[in-house]
Specification:
The strands form 3 sheets. A 4-stranded mixed sheet has the order 8-7-5-9, covered by helices on one side. It has 4 helices and 10 strands, in the order ββββαααββββββα. It has one domain: Alpha-Beta Complex (paralog of FGE (formylglycine-generating enzyme)). It is α+β, with helices and mostly antiparallel strands. The relative contact order is 0.22. Helix content is 16%, strand content 13%.
Amino acid sequence: MVPIPAGHFVLGASHKDKAQKPDELPNKTIQLEGFWMSSTEVSHDLYDIYRNKEKDVDAYGQPRTEGIVRPSPPYEDPSHGLGGASFPASGMTQFAALQFCKWLSEKTGKFYRLPTEAEWEYACRAGTTTAYFFGKKAKMLPEYAWFADNSEQKLHPVGSLKPNPWGLYDMYGNVAEWTLDQYQADAYAAISDQAIDPWRQPTALHPRTVRGGSYQDDAEELRSSNRIESDLQWKKRDPQIPKSFWWNTDSPFVGFRIVRPMKEPSKEEQKAFWDMVLGG
């Protein structure tokens, strides 16, 4: 985990960014408290321990965590043939990513969750204001990201390219990353200037916001301010779509990373959070 200092930044696209989209505006100055963020996207090394309850046992074969909900064993290769072990875990819904965070919180006694959109962009920018954390143009992108131009349409081991200035790897490309926020095209208009730790709390199952772009995407989709709206087609095999909490998607380009607030919420606050984001 990498410490991300408390501070402020301007959320949204620079007016000089020719690739800006309407949902990246208007700009708002945001205040954020400090947090830790995983230096890489969550890999199969860790995610598979959660997914496979036979792995999550002590020396006596007893469960290490109680009362944890897991997906049923998948009928197909959960890595979609795109790599295991040190490769990013992919193809899960936001619901599954949140259940992983709850499991990790129970297992460690520390509170882990997905980042908010504001936290994600703040950490990605790492104090910069340009379209990418290395500059205005995408020329250097292959040094930092697996994307359409260099990925050969496949995932790569996490942390195998250069990190951003704060030591975070794969903030661009490899897998696009789930955030906590409900997606709304005009979300920024509702945020007040100097807002503290804003996030768009869920009011429906869909859509959610994904950040960073993936190995399939072109350079402009990887910009620090770019927002991606989740699509119901990502989980088209869900028999109860759009009403159910579904675990896996048909989209190998989606994964996640985790954060831990430096100010630990109380047990009551944690319970209220899980009840809200997981449907209580």
